Amino acid sequence: MNKISMLRKPFVYFILGGPGSGKGTQCELLSKNLNFIHLSAGQLLRNAISNSSQHKTTIENCINNGRIVPSEVTISLLDKAIFENDKSDTFLIDGFPRNYENMINWIELMDHKINFQSVIHIICSKQTMIERIQERSKTSGRSDDNLQTLQKRFITFQNDTQKIIDHYRDLNQLIEINGDNSIEIVQEEILKRFKQIPIEEFKCQY
């Protein structure tokens, strides 16, 4: 890591929501509209499997069973992805943290390196999420895009990730969006909410 990278303190938003809520789709659109960098925790983990990293077996077992990958593994991948990318100073982290341990470890390992902004929570009905995952499974090739794993992921989200959302709501660092609407409407709502953030906190590059 070069000296310039060490001096950077990128701005970070967490994007949370249940499986199929549209986190990835909305992050991709935001990255185009606002020149933010989208980092999918899930995709980084899947890439680590494809690249046969030292954590391949651990990650694969967790993903296929709907469990949360150990914090230090995911954080190390996110850390590397953030500080090796200098195309923007604002990052959208999709699908992380997923439980309280993730959050505490992130704070301990990353808080001094980055400027954390807020959490965007995309709220979506279970039926909508199921329908979206079923449609996505036709082309995604993802091993976790099946109903059996999906049910486990719903339980994980409700039991673990919901606590993260409640925590940031208590800190007044939560932006909640109705994800049952169309892709376009959801994106418009997120952009509108970003524009309401005080300019000193809203560090984007047009």
TrEMBL record:
Q: Which stretches are annotated as coiled coil?
A: none
Q: Name one GO molecular function term.
A: nucleobase-containing compound kinase activity
Question: What InterPro entries has UniProt attached to this entry?
Answer: Adenylat/UMP-CMP_kin, Adenylat_kinase_CS, UMP_CMP_kinase
Q: Which GO terms describe its biological process?
A: 'de novo' pyrimidine nucleobase biosynthetic process; nucleoside monophosphate metabolic process; pyrimidine nucleotide biosynthetic process
- In terms of superkingdom, the source organism counts as Eukaryota
- Report if keyword Nucleus is assigned: yes
Q: Tell me which CDD domains the record gives.
A: ADK
Q: Which UniProt keywords apply?
A: ATP-binding, Cytoplasm, Nucleotide-binding, Nucleus, Pyrimidine biosynthesis
| Protein name (record) | Uncharacterized protein
What is the organism field in this record?
Paramecium sonneborni
